[in-house]
Amino acid sequence: MNNHVFILVWGEQFVRDYVEVALPLQCMVGNLPSLNDYGEIYYHIYTNRSSLGFFDPEIQELKKFVNLEFHLIDEIEVGGRKLSETVKNLIGPQVRYNLQFHCFKHLARIALDDRNSLITFLDPNTLISDGTLSAASMRIRDGYNVVNVNFLRVDSERFFPLIKKNLISEPRSLVRLAISHFHHLQKAFFLDADPFTAYPSQLNWWIGSEGCLARAFIPSPLMFKVKPEILTILSTMDYDLALRCWPDEEIYLCTDSDEMLVLKHSGSSHNANSVSGVAPSTRDLAIFLITSTHIRHRIFGDAPIFYHMNDINSKWERPLQESNTLLVAVYKEIESIPMHANKLDAKFLMYLKSHTGPIENYMSPALEPAALSII
User: Fold this and answer.
1) 8-state DSSP, 174
2) What gap in Å lies between CA 135 and CA 151, rounded to an integer?
3) Is residue 205 in a domain?
4) CA separation for the pair 241, 230 (Å, rounded)
5) Residue 212: inside a domain
6) pLDDT tens digit string along 101-152?
7) Which has the least CB within 10 A, 57, 206, 320, 328?
């Protein structure tokens, strides 16, 4: 089964970070090389022409075990226009999201011509432990059609000097290093955080010196089988690709960092103001889930994810029970809200319809501005 790997990266600093840290981790024996046992690997890098010179010499190592292909953003067309033209008036992260959306669809069409193939989706700031891709491909061979993973975000300025000096790839050592260098966005996901996140897409609990427990409502697809429905996504990959394409029982969520560990690195200034400072009530979390997720995202939130530095022991029992109790209360709150529909405004009713209706009608946050403009 051939595997098409997706990477979108451009700009000197981003390319150099990718080839110096992310790429060596991908090249560990339990990652890209392990996929060669099951078919050809086609590694697709989407970038712009001015960034091509920044990939060498490190990119040459990749050619030992993949078929490397560069796709120039400058030359991809969308609706008869150059992709670069369609994003020139966008600002901030919307540029990257829009490019990623169209570049992914470009790759999806290539992969659809390759029968029974897979796509592995990697952001350039994604760092994976040795064995992550091997474990994902094993789950596909077990019969799952998509493998989803949560990630922990680390601070680039503090994390990079250490991992560049000593390339750590073993999961438990990476968890230990990550926890010591969490990004401020990651720290804000913890229930006792001050300030707390304004966007609780995951909730975290400290487990003393053992690691941390997570509940992730919007994990990302890492590896999945190719089918025409992947072209129906309407927003970023994490919101709706898995749910649009496969029933719940065909979706695998990794819940143990020993099996698969994904980190993402960001600069300390990234989303520096996206914290609320308010500890969440069950009503707050219920409203977040209604306005930002689909009811089927519950299959992810119901699964506790263990990021651990040692074997799981009794220290995890209390936080695990606390997370279960909180989630039960939040879902009960969600179930009670429709009983007060006559008191809800039109905008919230639209959110509620999106949350509880068919996945095809799900209005992810990436679609909100256009979808709510009529209200």
Assistant:
1) H
2) 16
3) no
4) 7
5) no
6) 999 999 999 999 998 899 999 999 999 999 999 999 999 999 999 999 999 9
7) 57
Residue 77 resides in a domain: yes
Question: How many whole angstroms separate alpha carbon 139 and alpha carbon 253?
Answer: 10
Q: How far apart are CA 34 and CA 88, in angstroms?
A: 39
DSSP 94: H
Q: Examine the pLDDT at 278 and tell me if it is beyond 80.
A: no
| Secondary structure (DSSP) of 81-92 | EEHHHHTTT--T
**Per-residue confidence (pLDDT) for residue 272, from 0 to 100:** 59
Range of the domain at 88: 1-124
Whole-angstrom CA distances from 181 to 47, 115, 159, 253 are 29, 42, 6, 25
Residue for token digits 């060596």? 24
286/268 Cα distance (integer angstroms):
29
Domain count along the chain: 1
Euclidean distance between CA atoms 349 and 342, whole angstroms? 10
Residue 240 CB contacts under 8 Å (≥ 6 apart), including other chains: 233, 234, 294, 359, 362, 364
Distance CA 28, CA 66 (A): 13
Instruction: Extract the tokens encoding 319.
Output: 């936080």
Contact 32, 3 (CB under 8 A): no
For 169-183, 214-228, 328-342, which range has the lowest pLDDT when averaged over its residues?
Answer: 328-342
What is the C-alpha separation between 239 and 237, in angstroms, rounded? 6
- Give the CB-side neighbour count of residue 117, counting CA atoms within 13 A: 21
Measured between alpha carbons, how far is 289 from 355 in angstroms, rounded to an integer?
8
